[in-house]
Design goal:
The chain is an alpha+beta fold. The protein has eleven helices and six strands. The protein has a six-stranded mixed β-sheet.
Length: 308
């Protein structure tokens, strides 16, 4: 870093810059600058209105430094309070007219607040605080997720369902008959053999066990293609066999899921390729919880004789 600075500014100036950078306090966030700028603008706009009311002159837009009217400390404090209040109301999308009535301001302050509000009411998006923007973004993402969930569920005749991570728990209720980590390639055949052994112990015929193993093999092989590690778990309930394949990978991109699930042969770096098509044909239901923290695929197989 120092060598790079020296090439641009010379040794003396580069050293000064480097020293200053190491001693400098952290910069405020960009949002803090934005907030301070808006607050200062509101205050100056209100100040101009108040000065105009004192002089009874219409001087909208004139440089404040040219005004001969000086505000008292009390008036300055009142304007700072009103500027902060208006900023917060707009950030929360409050009813400004209602808030103003509740303040019971005198006519001068009421008029200046209404004048300033009329100036900025079209630009309320500038006042939304960071938390509110993040909340809005989260809500929008959730709405999109629900649309994808419902469309995929309908298009697959209710066989494939997107779920949230917190919805996985109920499907784990039952008897855990296998749980094995998948961390390296040698774990794959071992997991497959253990799955075959435990499934045969449930009394299922070999043909049905082999069908399940085909899908299990497809799913656990993809763990190491798209993640560093994962887990294979099998839970038996009185009605079903639930196979869980979890990984710590980057997850499935939501906008590509319909192609991955519904288009035979479609494949991307993070998809299962032919896997989903095969699973939809052979499993009774598929559930998928996915995020940038990892994915959990649940294969559900109904037991013979069970009522669903």
């Amino acid at each position: 870093m120092d060598n790079w600075l020296q090439k641009i500014f010379g040794r003396k100036h580069a050293t000064a810059i480097s020293d200053a950078s190491s001693d400098a306090e952290p910069l405020p966030s960009l949002y803090a600058y934005h907030q301070q700028f808006i607050l200062e603008w509101l205050f100056k706009r209100m100040k101009l209105e108040l000065q105009n009311s004192h002089t009874n002159e219409e001087r909208s837009g004139e440089d404040l430094s040219l005004s001969p009217v000086q505000l008292t400390a009390e008036e300055t404090a009142q304007l700072e309070y009103l500027a902060s209040s208006l900023f917060n109301w707009l950030g929360k999308n409050d009813d400004v007219y209602l808030k103003l009535r509740q303040l019971k301001l005198g006519p001068v302050y009421m008029d200046l607040m209404l004048a300033v509000y009329e100036d900025v009411r079209e630009y309320t998006y500038l006042f939304a605080d960071k938390t509110q923007k993040e909340t809005a973004a989260t809500e929008s993402a959730q709405e999109v997720w629900h649309v994808y969930r419902d469309v995929i569920y309908a298009a697959t005749q209710q066989k494939f369902k997107l779920i949230q991570a917190e919805e996985i728990g109920p499907y784990r209720q039952g008897t855990l008959i296998l749980e094995v980590p998948i961390q390296e390639r040698s774990d794959i055949p071992r997991a497959r053999e253990l799955a075959k052994e435990r499934l045969l112990l449930t009394g299922q015929p070999l043909s049905r066990v082999m069908n399940k193993l085909l899908l299990i093999s497809e799913a656990i092989t993809n763990i190491l293609k798209h993640a560093s590690e994962g887990t294979l778990s099998i839970v038996q309930t009185p009605e079903d066999i639930h196979v869980f394949v979890a990984d710590n990978g980057p997850g499935f991109e939501l906008k590509l899921l319909p192609y991955t699930i519904l288009m035979e042969g479609y494949s991307t770096k993070n998809s299962l390729g032919q896997g989903f098509t095969l699973m939809l044909k052979m499993a009774d239901q598929l559930l998928l919880a996915t995020s940038d923290q990892g994915s959990t695929l649940i294969l559900i197989f109904h037991e013979e004789g069970a009522t669903h």
